[in-house]
Amino acid sequence: MTLSIFDLFSVGIGPSSSHTVGPMRAAAYFVEGLLDGGRLDAVEAVRVDLYGSLAATGPGHGTPTAVLLGLEGLRPETVTPAKVDARRAAIAADGVIRLAGRLPIALTERDVVMHPLTVLPRHTNGVRFTAFGADGAVLAEETYYSVGGGFVEREGDEGAAARGGGGAAITAPFPFRTAAELLEHCRVRGVGFADVMLANEVALAGDGEGAAAEVTTRLLGIRDVMDECVATSLARSGVLPGGLQVRRRAPEWRERLRAADPNGAPEFWQEWVNLVALAVNEENASGGRVVTAPTNGAAGIVPAVLHYARTYLPENGPDDDEVCVRFLLAAAAVGVLYKEQASISGAEVGCQGEVGSASSMAAAGLAEVMGGTPEQVENAAEIAMEHNLGLTCDPIGGLVQIPCIERNAIAASKAINAAKMALWGDGSHHVSLDQVITTMRETGRDMSDKYKETALGGLAVNVVEC
Ligand code: SF4
Q: 296-319, pLDDT tens digit by residue?
C-alpha cells in the first residue's frame, strides 16, 4: 500500500493534527454516518468521551472545540480560523451545537467527558461518540482513534486504511513500505524518489490525460498554503493563546532581519530558516491554517527547509515550481515510510515521530533538489532521523508552544545539515533508513508514557506555568 502525498500534506487548522484535525474529522465522519443511515433527525442528544492523550492534553490542543465543530459538519480542510472562533463563541453562549449544520443539540465543551487515565487498547488517542434518540435509546455509537497527522481509524474497521486529508489509500503501480523497496524501484527505473512518488500519485489521480498536471497543480497549492501561513503569521503580533504568555517572535525578527540582510546574503540563511519555522509554528499554536507536514506540531520544518531550497540553491538550477514539486514529492515518499513502518504520532512514539519524521522528510526533499542520487537522498533522511532518536513529547501546559516552536527551527537546521552531509558522501553508509525507522518505532514503544503527549513529564512538569 502506498499513501497519497495529500494524506501527508493536508490543509488543516492548528494547533495539533492528532488532537485537533483528527478528532474534528472523526466527529464529521460520525455525523456523515448518521446522515447516510437516515438517523440524523431522530437524534435528541449526543455524548462525547475523550480517552488517553486526547483527554490529557485535549483543552490545550483544542480537542473539545474540534469535536463540537466536527459534529456540526465542519472539516479541517475547509474551515477558517475565523469560523472556528465564531462557532466556538456561539456554542459557549447558546449551549447548543447544530448537528450536521442544522439540528440543534444541547452540547458544549464542558459536556465533553474526559478520561485522561483510560487508554483504549488500540491507541492512546481515542474518542467515542454516542447518539441517543427520544427515549434515551442509543441510535449510534462509534469509537475513533486519531493516529497522527490527522489520520483517523474507526473501531471495527481494523485492516482498513486510515482516513486522512487526501481520501482513501491507494494501490500504487510502484508500491513500497520500506526504503529498500523504494530504492529498488529507483534502481530498476533509473529515477529518483520524487519520480516514484509522482507515478503513484498520478495513478491515484486517474492516470488519464492531465493527471500529472493535476497532481502538480495540487502540490503547488500546498506550497501556496505554506506561503500564506507564513505571511499571515508575520502580519500578526502579541502573545499566543493558552495562558503561557508566549510572545510571537517571528514578526519582530522579520523586521530586524530585513534591516540586517537587505540583499539576501547567503550568510543569513540560518536566520531566515529559523524565521519561517517560527512563523509557521506560531500560526499553528494560535489555531491558524497550516499544512500538516506530516503533523501540525512539526508543520514548520518542511516549509523552512523548502525556503532554503528555493532561496539558496544555485540560480541556474530548476525553476521555483519544479524545485517545490520535486522537494515535496521526495519528502512525502519518506513520510510514507514512517507512516507505514512506525508512527508520526507524538502520543504513540514521542516527538521523534513528529519532529524527527518531518526533519527526515525535509532532508530527503532538500537532497533531492540538490541533485542527490536515490542513495544520497535515503542517506539524508537517515541522518536526520538518527539524530532525533529519543526525542520526547512534553509540551508545557499541553500547548503546542514550548518546546514545539523552537524545536521546529532546530530540526530544520538538522535537516539541511543532513542533506549537505549526504551530498558530500557517495550514498554508502552504515545505518540504513529502514534500520533507523525500526529503531525509532522501538524507542517509541519503550518510552515512558509520561513523555508521549500527556503533559505528565519533562518540561511539562519541570517548568512552572504562570
Ligand atoms: S513536543 Fe513535539 S510531538 Fe509533542 S506537541 Fe510538540 S511538536 Fe508535537
A: 999 999 999 999 999 999 876 779
Q: Nearest residue CA, atom 2 of ligand 1? A: 351
Ligand 1 near 458 CB (within 6 A): no
Pairwise CA distance, residues 162 & 139, whole Å: 24
Per-position b or e across 79-98, b if 16+ CB within 10 A of its CB: beeeebeebbeebeeeeebb
Q: Is the per-residue pLDDT at 113 higher than 70?
A: yes
Are 295 and 338 contacting, i.e. CB atoms less than 8 angstroms apart? no
Q: Is 404 in the pocket of ligand 1 (CB under 6 A)?
A: yes
Residues 78-90: what's their mean pLDDT?
A: 92
Q: Quick one: cell of 238?
A: 502579541
Residue pair 439/382 in contact by the 8 Å Cβ criterion: no
Q: Whose CA is nearest to atom 6 of ligand 1?
A: 404
Query: Distance from the CA of 422 to the center of ligand 1, in angstroms?
Result: 27
pLDDT digits (tens, 9 = 90+) for 37-57: 999 999 999 999 999 989 987
Centre of ligand 1 from the C-alpha of residue 404, in Å: 5
Ligand 1 within 6 A of CB of 453? yes
- The DSSP line for 416-465 is HHHHHHHHHS-S--SS-HHHHHHHHHHHHHHS-GGGBSSSSSTHHHHS--
Considering the entire predicted model, what is its pTM? 0.91
